[in-house]
């Protein structure tokens, strides 16, 4: 049985200090289920192990901790192979409905993800957000994280928006809300929310860039030491279309430089004007982070509130 704590697991939320590896693992399991509860998402044993907060453990250790009765019924409950906070049994039906919606959307995610991957200067396309974990609500869209060649991020984004509009006419909502260039693979936010988003990311194309991003952001291991690699595999064939090198050559010139500068300045002015205090946005030549809400901060606040209610149950 292997259990070890990892430094930096969640500095924004204070946790109960307990003696012994078993108690430490029990608290980590509780934190993991509490975090997913923010998203109304019960977890399997495998998912608890992958997203275990702040403690490195093998799968058998997690299975033993879940099966020895110490976490039930004081804090957690199990229903048909899924774990949730006690009193949240209704989430099993919620998860099943959302998984059904997610299965229908994955076909479109791979289809449009590969179209985007074929655009000039695109180096990686990955699914993030709710679809990445099969937790699509009725009004959710397909979130893409996109990496581009340096110096062409904003022209690439303009072409991506063309695909977004075409998909919208078919009733498919796509949200390319985070683009970075290869110069900006070190992401600035370092908290449990950002770590989970990184660990949940599913590359559609550009597996080599995906691996670089994970290496550049090895701080994620401090929060989620068991979550290596993507949570699911998607065939990565035909990453680059035959026309991509030619189209890039045609745009890699002074005229393309001027078009990139014009589009960047135009959109940054608009986005900066429209942004409201507290929204998670950032724009530059190397990134376009368009989360026009405070979802990350709100998630961590909701998570802290759940911990304040349930962590003492295992003392």
What does this structure look like?
The chain has 315 residues and is α+β, with helices and mostly antiparallel strands. It folds into 2 domains: 3-92 and 300-314, Orthogonal Bundle (Arc Repressor Mutant, subunit A); 104-293, no CATH class. Helices cover 47% and strands 16% of the residues. It contains 12 helices and 10 strands. The strands form 3 sheets. It has a 6-stranded mixed sheet with strand order 8-5-6-7-10-9, sandwiched between helices. Strands 1-2 form a two-stranded antiparallel sheet. A hairpin with a 2-residue loop joins strand 3 and strand 4. Helix 1 packs across helix 3 (59-67), helix 1 (21-37) crosses helix 12 (295-310) and helix 6 (153-168) crosses helix 11. The longest helix is centred in the first third of the chain and has 27 residues, at 91-117. The protein is elongated and about 65 Å long. The two termini are 22 Å apart. The model is unreliable at 10-20 (pLDDT under 50).
């Amino acid at each position: 049985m292997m259990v070890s704590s990892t430094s930096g697991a969640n500095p924004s939320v204070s946790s109960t200090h307990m003696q012994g590896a078993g108690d430490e693992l029990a608290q980590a399991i509780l934190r993991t289920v509490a975090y997913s509860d923010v998203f109304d998402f019960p977890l399997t044993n495998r998912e608890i192990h992958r997203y275990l907060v702040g403690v490195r453990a093998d799968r058998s250790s997690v299975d033993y901790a879940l099966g020895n009765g110490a976490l039930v019924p004081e804090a957690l409950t199990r229903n048909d192979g899924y774990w949730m906070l006690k009193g949240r049994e209704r989430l099993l039906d919620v998860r099943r409905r959302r998984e059904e919606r997610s299965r229908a959307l994955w076909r479109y995610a791979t289809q449009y993800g590969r179209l985007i991957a074929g655009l000039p200067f695109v180096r990686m396309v990955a699914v993030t957000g709710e679809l990445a974990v099969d937790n699509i609500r009725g009004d959710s869209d397909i979130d893409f994280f996109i990496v581009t060649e340096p110096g062409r991020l904003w022209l690439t984004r303009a072409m991506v928006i063309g695909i977004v509009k075409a998909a919208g006419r078919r009733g498919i909502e796509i949200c390319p809300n985070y683009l970075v260039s290869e110069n900006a693979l070190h992401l600035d936010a370092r908290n449990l929310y950002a770590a989970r988003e990184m660990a949940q990311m599913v590359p559609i194309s550009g597996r080599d860039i995906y691996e670089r991003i994970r290496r550049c952001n090895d701080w994620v291991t401090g929060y989620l030491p068991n979550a290596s690699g993507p949570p699911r595999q998607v065939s990565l064939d035909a990453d680059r279309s035959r026309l991509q090198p030619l189209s890039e050559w045609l745009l890699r010139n002074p005229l393309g430089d001027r078009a990139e500068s014009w589009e960047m300045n135009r959109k940054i002015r608009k986005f900066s004007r429209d942004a409201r205090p507290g929204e998670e946005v950032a724009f530059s030549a190397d990134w376009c982070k368009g989360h026009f809400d405070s979802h990350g901060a709100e998630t961590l606040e909701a998570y802290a509130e759940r911990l304040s209610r349930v962590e003492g149950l295992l003392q």
